[in-house]
Amino acid sequence: MLFGREHVERYRATGGEEGHEWQGTTTLILTTTGRTSGLQRSTPLIYRTDGGAYVVVASNGGAPDHPQWYKNLRASPEVEVQVKADRFRARARTAAPAEKARLWPRMAEEWPQYDEYKERTDRDIPVVLLEPVG
């Protein structure tokens, strides 16, 4: 998470006027369904676009385990995404190895710490594509 709950609340309240631009990059709000609780969970994430998809990285700061939002979307890939004031349904999927090889450098260019996070963990850090539906 970036700013956590406060980031999500300000982003939503301002249609992304506050929170979309963050520390030299851009963020979206990803809402997943809790795999145990069934509750909606919203997380601010750095993104880039690739064709019609939004690309995010499940880095968890290089921690040894995947972030909760990634575990949630693996259990239920139907998600909601907010980019600025635009909210839409999307289907999340983990990038295939060839896609990840292409997308990782672009994401690390956007947020260089991703390469540092990769060095901190033995975990294969997933790259996720959020593909709008409907």
TrEMBL record:
InterPro entries: F420H2_quin_Rdtase, Split_barrel_FMN-bd. NCBIfam families: hi_GC_TIGR00026 (TIGR00026). Gene3D superfamilies: Electron Transport, Fmn-binding Protein, Chain A. It comes from Streptomonospora arabica. Belongs to the F420H(2)-dependent quinone reductase family. This is Nitroreductase family deazaflavin-dependent oxidoreductase. It catalyses: oxidized coenzyme F420-(gamma-L-Glu)(n) + a quinol + H(+) = reduced coenzyme F420-(gamma-L-Glu)(n) + a quinone.
